[in-house]
Amino acid sequence: MYDFEKYEKLIEERLSPYRYHHSMCVAKKARELAEKHGVDPDKAYLAGVLHDVTKETDYAVQQKLIEQFETMTDLERNNKKVYHQMSGAAFVQSELGITDSDIINGVRYHTTGHADMTLFEMIIYLADFTSEDRDYPDVDIMREKTDNNLLDGMLYSLSYTITSIVKQGRQIHPDTINCYNDCLSRQARN
């Protein structure tokens, strides 16, 4: 159904060897998590391949891509770390002609998350956090939590992210806060 070779070649051409390797590791982990949770593994693999497609693109170019599809808030304009998820979603639509909302949203929210994330979106978010190339402190705990329960993985990763951003004295995207609160509510209902 998907021409994986075409998309893998595209990101290999667009990204550094380090980022290409990371993208392939995320794709592999996304497929693994999708198979485990009854989500289309090919679609998850493709979203993993493409999740960082614009990560190394000039910020001005990314901003123009984003503004074709959505209005950036001041917080987003001032936080270049979220550009690539927004510009990546715009790129897969405008340049690659992908219209599948799962893939678009998987790319769009793989950094910040958001309230009411779908299972597919959680898989892409967590695949990025737990791919085999990751080596940050607590990554083994994060992998274990994710492999046992996606919601536990989300809460741990969001807590880790929020704490890290606070320690750096940076603004936290409202989508991340909303995602954390939503995940806590989901956990309380279970």
Characterization of the model:
By secondary structure, this protein is mostly helical. It has eleven helices and no strands. The chain has helices at residues 4-14, 17-37, 41-50, 59-67, 74-77, 83-94, 101-108, 119-130, 139-148, 150-167, 174-189. The protein is globular. The chain starts with a helix and ends with a helix.
Question: What's the arrangement of secondary structure elements?
Answer:
Layout (H helix, E strand, L loop, with lengths): L3 H11 L2 H21 L3 H10 L8 H9 L6 H4 L5 H12 L6 H8 L10 H12 L8 H10 L1 H18 L6 H16 L1
Helix pairs in contact: 1-2, 2-3, 2-8, 3-7, 4-6, 6-7, 7-8, 8-10, 9-10, 10-11
Rg over CA atoms, rounded to whole Å, is 16 Å
Strand content range? under 5%
Q: What order do the helices and strands follow?
A: HHHHHHHHHHH
State the helix count: 11
The share of residues in helices is 55-70%
* Stretches with pLDDT under 50, minimum 5 residues: none
The termini sit apart by 36 Å
What form results from the Cα inertia axes?
globular
Counting helices, strands and paired strands, the structural category is mainly alpha
> What is the makeup of the main sheet?
none
In total, the number of strands is 0
Mean pLDDT: 96
Quick overview of this protein structure:
The chain is mainly alpha-helical and 190 residues long. The chain is built from eleven helices and no strands.
Task: Tag the structure with descriptive keywords.
single chain, 190 residues, mainly alpha, globular
